[in-house]
Amino acid sequence: KDRLGRAERRRSGTDESTPTAAKDLDVIGQRVEVSGRFPGAIEDVKSSANGKVHYLVRFDDGNHRAWIERRKIRLAGEPGKAAARKPPTYKVGQRVTALWEPTGKYYRGVVSE
User: Chain-centre distance of CA 46, in angstroms?
Assistant: First the structure.
């Protein structure tokens, strides 16, 4: 009973026991991505004595759940650090090292066009 009451207070933003930094994700069922590539949904939230907040995430693969730190979670669809970076620009004649994806190997080369 009390757990459901706390979850409802967290959803409404009236639970003062939850640290402010955690309130942005403090909604049971909210869609998230862990480490930028593993989609899932929040099932529960806990705060430890040292103030760290962890979220129980059920991953979309359906057979895995884990307690995850807030720093590893972002809202689903929210751009990550990689999306914020500008794509690199290269000049003709510039020496580069590039990944050839079919083999997973890196090769040296020179930009030709």
Answer: 17
